[in-house]
Amino acid sequence: MVNETTKFIEKQAHDWLVKLEVGDMLDGDEERFVDWLSQDEIHGIAFSQVEATWRLMHDAAEGLEESNAHNKNKGFDVTTNSTTFFKRTLLPLAASFLILAFTLFFGKTIWLPITADFYTSTGERTEYALPDGSVITLNTGSAINVQMEDDIRGIEVLAGEIYIVVAPDQQRPFVVQAGDMRVTALGTEFIVHKRENQDALVIVTEHSVKVENKQDKSSNLVLAVGESITLDNEQKQFSRKTLVNYQRESAWLKGKYVFTDETLEAVVNELSRYHKGKIMIMDDSLKRLKLNGVLDLDEPLTSLQNLTYTLPIKVKNITPYLVLIEQG
């Protein structure tokens, strides 16, 4: 009986973790999840164990891919029978199993470390120097492909957010592709967003860029410093140009999030991009609270805790993965 009960609780914990990760929560599910956690201490322990298992598998898959890539770059060729059997038979099977499990659990983002030339995981921010002298900084959870040719320099933004400092080269234009948006540098620095389920966005921080719509060849625009534009995913049309505070929009380069008159929901959504887990606001009335400030993106949970000093909220760390925000 004890074993059956334990298995049932583990299944419940697994189901809740999948719901949280894939965004399959229905109305009232957040409250039901909290109720389930509070029913018995064993529920919280089971959830923490399931979470740890998934994270371990995720880290193992990333490590496997990094090891394969490293071996390819080094040109390793191991010829012993046992190692060859492992590499040709067991390793592909294990990798296939992990990829299938991760695709179901984490969605298409699991492919980014495998398909991208450069990639940052949650909470990472990395700068890369390209062969032409240009410098690209990838924000958290970002991925790009790079193509350097004799007549063109190309970047494809697969996901996330990048900051580009373009090296001059009049013979080879520098072009960034983000979905159907095509951005050509005109001797400049700029930011490109391509977040999941959001419109592609470009913000100019120095000089200017030319922006084109692949779906509408006649739609060409030039943006100057401080101007931004988005390309609607559904309508396949550009929005109006808008003026933005580009210094605030690029504050993430220094690990800062600067915001003015934002809702708590918007702030939590931004911090969540830098936390390897879920941050959930349990009361809808709290989501509408307005605030101003500067937060540290490198310490998202500390930043979140600091908000309790000025807002009527409390932060509960259920597990390292799950954080709840409730009425203070």
- The termini sit apart by 40 Å
Average the pLDDT over all residues and give the rounded result.
82
- Which CATH class of the largest domain is shown? Mainly Beta
Share in helix: 25-40%
* Count of strand segments: 18
Radius of gyration: 23 Å
The low-confidence runs, each spanning 5 or more residues with pLDDT under 50, are 69-87, 102-106
Q: Would you write up a description of this structure?
A:
By secondary structure, the protein is an alpha+beta fold. It folds into 3 domains: 2-112, no CATH class; 118-249, Jelly Rolls; 255-327, Phage tail protein beta-alpha-beta fold (3-Layer(bab) Sandwich), CATH 3.55.50.30. It contains 9 helices and 18 strands. The strands form 3 sheets. Strands 1, 2, 3, 4, 5, 6, 7, 8, 9, 10, 11, 12 and 13 form a 13-stranded mixed β-sheet that branches. Strands 15-18-17 form a 3-stranded mixed β-sheet. Helix 1 (2-22) packs across helix 3, helix 2 crosses helix 3 (41-74) and helix 3 crosses helix 4. The relative contact order is 0.08. The model is unreliable at 69-87 and 102-106 (pLDDT under 50).
